[in-house]
Amino acid sequence: MSSISNSRRKFITNSAKGTIAAGIGLSAAGSFISSCANAKNISKSLVFTNFDQQPLPYKYDALENVIDAMTMEIHYSKHAAAYAKNVKEAATAEAVDITKPLEEVLAKISKYSAKMRNNGGGHYNHELFWQCMRPKTADNKPTGKLAAAIDKTFTSFAELKKQFGDTGKNRFGSGWAWLYADANKNLKIGSTPNQDNPLMDISEIKGTPLLALDVWEHAYYLKYQNKRPDYIEAWWNVVNWDFVATRFSGI
Ligand code: MN3
What we know:
Helix Hairpins; mainly alpha; binds manganese (III) ion; minor pseudopilin epsh fold; 2 domains
């Protein structure tokens, strides 16, 4: 009797776990679909709800050959989650209306605290970074108007990769490499330190971010250790050029 009860209990527990796992799978699929739908609608703005961290648009192991699952999990659920939590704290302390786009705060970041600058930038940069990636595809490269603009500006996609890669490699310490559009809609490549970005009024480079690469050690150290150039070279395989093209068409 007792053993029947135990196996029944075990069955129920396992069934519950199965249901939860299936739920997570569906929810991840749903958020992936909705983020694709959102990507069609966004132009300059990323879609946030009350500065909340959005669901990752793929599973932790989806980029495994380029970014290992443990790095992705720690990066998303620890580092990026902390920026999201802390920017909301800063927003409460500094009476910021979190129903408005975070971009509006970043554009006037010189008027806010260092906590807002570091965590507002951190939150925005990571939300953009996740969407700038997708599972590895063969012959991954930009197409259409974006490809034409890249050829016009940099002479070739290979040259864009070289300049962007060098910018990421040469960022001393922690920071980001960017492909962005300046006020005249010209494509530019640049880098920012820490969690700054081209939307910020204090930034040396200014414009609309199109493609973001995190070159903080936490983004690559478990798999690549000190070899940041290897991480950057591999990263081109998972760039979501459709997302970048959508942002480019919206500026
Ligand atoms: Mn990071």
